Amino acid sequence: MTVLLIGNSLTAGNLGIPYSRYLNFPDDSTSEHRLINRGRDGDTLSGVGNRLEAALKADNPDVLIIQTGANDILLPEMASRGGLWTPFVREMEKRGSIPTTEPREFSEIYTEMIGRAVSHVVDIRRIICVTIPPIGEVLHSERNRKREVYNREIRRVIEETGAKLADVSNAFENILEKIKNPSDWFFGSPGDFTADVKEVRRGKGAMGLSEERGLYLTIDGAHLNEKGAELMGKVISSAIAMETVPRRVR
Fold it and tell me: Do 71 and 11 contact (CB within 8 A), yes or no?
């Protein structure tokens, strides 16, 4: 079974801990499992969509996992801050990571992506769409209110296409809502990413960073520590195990 992961930095796994480390596959002694990771830091829904066709042709997956959406919310916020974020966002846009700021357009693009996947890979067994996990561990924040709007659109896409839902958002919220005084720590500049990569690999480690910042599932409000990666991997693994065949979208 070939599993294709396509998405943003949570899939790429360069920042924090990759959830792919914790993926489990259904027991099947008759076949080997091949995991292909096409995550890209900073990518958006449209960026994933632009890369999808080439990935499908190259990899011919049995299972496609689509994980995206957070940067459609974050990149406009970064652009509005100015300063060091301006060249950062400009570079993301040059790579094709253009944010989709209208929720309805978001669901239309998502639906079209699934339709293309079904058309290109006739024997695809499962398409799994991942909800956007909390952006910052304070659930009542403006970022997370926007995130819920986008997640409603992802759930709408699931209903319309017959794809499978990996509801990472719900799993994370069930844990974070029990924390009495959640930390509002969130990365503040592009330089934080570089510094955190060094700390995770050669310094405090992911859990050390989280503890220092009062965070539970992430190292910086967005990227995963071991607890977050393990939980996300568990939710997606459950979706992989479900025998759901997507419908052809007209």
Answer: no
What's the Cα-to-Cα distance from 40 to each of 17, 51, 71, 139, 183, rounded to whole Å? 14, 10, 11, 26, 27
Cα–Cα distance for residue pair 10/211, rounded to 1 Å: 20
Quick one: 137 exposed, middle or buried, by C-beta within 10 A (0-12, 13-18, 19+)? buried
How does DSSP classify residue 4? E
pTM confidence score:
0.94
CA gap 89, 74 in Å, rounded: 10
Written as one letter, the residue type at 67 is: Q
Q: What share of the chain is helix, strand, coil (3-state, %, to 5)?
A: 50, 10, 40
3-state secondary structure of 239: helix
Three-state DSSP class for 208?
A: helix
What are the residues whose beta carbons fall under 8 Å from the beta carbon of 165, sequence distance 6 or more?
128, 129, 131, 154, 155, 158, 239
Asked if pLDDT for residue 157 goes beyond 50, the answer is yes
Task: Delineate the domains of the chain, giving CATH numbers in brackets.
Answer: 2-179+233-241 (3.40.50.1110)
β-sheet bridge partners, residue 218: 224
Give the tokens for residue 178.
């029990």
> Which tens digit of pLDDT belongs to each residue from 174-223?
999 999 999 999 999 999 999 999 999 988 999 999 999 999 999 999 99
- Collapsed DSSP state (helix, strand, coil) of residue 244: coil
Report CA 68 to chain centroid distance, whole Å.
Answer: 4
Cβ atoms of 86 and 220 within 8 Å: the answer is no
What are 90's two structure tokens? 């400009």
Quick one: which of 82, 87, 73 has its CA closest to 136? Answer: 73
